[in-house]
Amino acid sequence: MPVITNINDLKKIYARRAPKMFYDYAESGSWTEQTFRENTSDFDQIYLRQRVAIDMTGRTTATKMIGQDVSMPVGLAPVGLTGMQCADGEIKAARAAEKFGVPFTLSTMSICSIEDVAENTTKPFWMQVYTLKDDDFMQRLFDRAKDAKCSAAMITVDLQLQGQRHKDLKNGLSAPPKLTVKSVTNMMTKVQWGLGMLGTKRRFFGNIVGHAKGVSDPSSLSSWTSEAFDQALNWDRIREFRKMWDGPLIIKGIMDPRDAREALNVGADAIIVSNHGGRQLDGAISAIRALPAIMDAVGDKIEVHLDSGIRSGQDVLKAMAMGASGTYIGRAFVYGLGAMGEAGVTRALEVIHKELDSSMGLSGRTDVGKLDRDILMIPKGFAGDWE
Q1: What is the pLDDT of residue 267?
Q2: Which keywords accompany this UniProt record (predicted)?
Q3: Catalytic one of 166, 211, 276, 305
């Protein structure tokens, strides 16, 4: 067993064990990947203040996200194709999150279905949905989530039009993977991954195939996907989705204070400052740079969470100290999953928790729910002084 001390250790193992098309799917952004890179590098510009001779005993990372108890303010973000990174990946990630006491969010574009995850877990998870044209499919998706006792719904609002990710096009990304000489040659070197996939029946988009009109098998999925997303989306349409779901609602993909106010007005319980991990609009600012202006606009009226760029417990600490009341990891848990399955997701959570707890103590604080900017040194103009 290798010694895992940080998320990058898991990433190195993941890169060896996962097929190239799925590694590239996770580890890429759109176009030039500027936003993808700066989501993480911008955290490095924020420094922590070290404090001494302050009682740091009795520390707690426990808090609440949308009123639900969490062992630390870190949820597992919705990630499509998770079940291609590792056989039954969504189930394994959900189990790890449940045992650790943090939220797991299932993507609509998951390999394991809502029902699969519900059958293999004992506590409620969260369900992510896209803004699709098909009202019947959307209502049934929300109803399925309710039947599975999901305790929150998350609407992703930044995928009306898909950003181009060059690696996915070059690799011919699909689920199950297309069998070309190149892909088969690569997959033959990933023995552990291959044995896992041979041992599961879950190799297609479980929430779509057999549920969406006209999608009875994987071959009919691509045409449905190209037509399903609603480029005419507006806030009135989002209000219609709010009526379809009467539980806690989170809106993901907010990067502008004006959109944050709109999300507040449609009755969301929380918003997630997120640029889709740099996979949509390349050239947009990082999520952590966007956070201050959004906190100023709505931070006292709605929970503000942050996604995109979190790779460590210090990143979580910085986001919370800047006002966020929750954060999410996507790639960080996928690295663990692809490296070591459920145990790898658990290890990713342990790594982040330890760094969050230790860094919080060394900054002179003992309660993650009572952090503020006093523990940070933020460069002047960090949030931008734009024309």
Answers
A1: 94
A2: Flavoprotein, FMN, Oxidoreductase
A3: 276
